Amino acid sequence: MSELSVFMHPRAFWIGKYTGVSRYVCELIQGLLDKGVEVQLPILDTPNGYLRKADFFPLVSQGSPKESLLWKCLSQVPMCPEWAELARRQMLRTQSLKALKTFRYDLVHPTHNNSTEILPHIKKTPLVITIHDMTHELFPQSFSPADPSARRKREFARRADRIIAISRRTKEDAVRILGVDPDIVDVVYHGNSLTLPRIPLAHIPPLPERYVLFVGKRAGYKNFENFIKAFSIIHQKAPELHLICVGGGAFSDEENRLIAELRLASFVRQLPADDALLATLYSKAEFFVYPSLYEGFGLPLLEAFSCGAPVVCSDASCFPEIAGDAALYFDGNSVENIAEAMEEAFLNETLRSKLRKKGTERLTHFSWAKCAEETLTSYQRVL
Question: Which of 257, 307, 320, 367 has the most CB within a 10 Å radius?
Fold first, then answer.
């Protein structure tokens, strides 16, 4: 019997095939299991690709409530996709609360800070939460006014016995904005999951000889508009340079209009990518650009380091904390400064080689094993 049992409410696995939070939780669970911690995650099926592929999934989901007869009947009733999704989530919510009331555990660590419906049922059980960023609070214009994320995060923070922040910057923002006691907040860094495939991919889409890589969502604080304008400046000087954007969905009409206005339509493309293709794209890029104005950690920095892509990024938020001297920095609010940094990286092979070497060295400071060990220390402080 394990000395410590942790209940993880599974909301992060209800939606989305691949998300940064779900990857973090999967890596954390594996690390905790390796240290002899019992983890209970009451969910039997999920669209999440990371959890579905995890060897530990059958173990941590043992004892999860089965589908009710009512849900089995409802699932056979024809309904529009929106109603079907609402019904599915309500079923998952009901199953999770049932497990919360019936399982035996020492500590609760939710996978998502929107799951405030569990708070009335926790009672005096120790609660640990992870705060990944303060984006909703710092950039409310990037989200719907009806988005409850900021309010629910505050509710969790008020009840939490211990808080894990994924960077010092995230801790500082959480303490300042949420008013939490800094003494209960532990900084626990992420690790890296992305590595180059052992066997080169047999089929990859045709790639330009020289390209810059952008990864992730593009709206709002992600600062894509300033970045693409800066890229147009460098492209005029180096017309052989292309831009590949991975993830974030297809370009919006507004983005397509901007790309057309900048006369870049033939030089910019968006690709979906699994981990193997993403790693390959990092490895073949001239450099990876991360222009975001705010991130809680910036996991793509570690991905780029791991796959050998030189990093050019904004000097905002936690980026200097995570990347250290392994990146070339720019002011993300200045199109000219972004362009100057990209031009310097493009023209200077010696600089790119130096950044690759520094990135490999910097990567040694971060690991999922260390993340699990320090998370376990947070649990022990509570208990």
Answer: 307
Q: What residues contact residue 352 under an 8 Å CB cut-off, 6+ apart?
A: 286, 287, 310, 345
What lies within 8 Å, CB to CB, of 202 at 6+ separation is none
pLDDT at 59 exceeding the cut of 50: yes
Crossing angle (nearest 10°) for helices 299-307 and 349-363? 110
Q: What is the DSSP string of 49-110?
A: HHHHH-TTHHHHTTTPPPPPHHHHHHTTS---HHHHHHHHHHHHHHHHHHHHHHS--SEE--
Distance CA 316, CA 314 (A): 5
Integer Cα distance of 375 and 189 in angstroms:
10
Kindly list the distances between the CA atom of residue 9 and the CA atoms of 43, 45, 112, 282, in Å, as whole numbers in the listed order.
9, 14, 8, 34
Q: Return phi, psi of residue 281, to 5°.
A: -65, -40
Helices (H), the chain: 20-34, 49-53, 57-60, 69-74, 81-102, 119-122, 135-138, 149-159, 168-178, 224-237, 253-261, 275-284, 299-307, 319-323, 335-347, 349-363, 368-382
Give how far the C-alpha of residue 36 lies from the chain's centroid of Cα atoms, to the nearest Å.
26
> Residue 69: which pLDDT band, with cuts at 50, 70 and 90?
low
pLDDT tens digits, 78-134 = 767 777 777 777 888 888 999 999 999 999 999 999 999 999 999 899 999 999 999
Please state the three-class secondary structure of 28-62 as a single string. Answer: HHHHHHHCCCEEECCCCCCCCHHHHHCCCHHHHCC
Name the pTM for this structure.
0.91
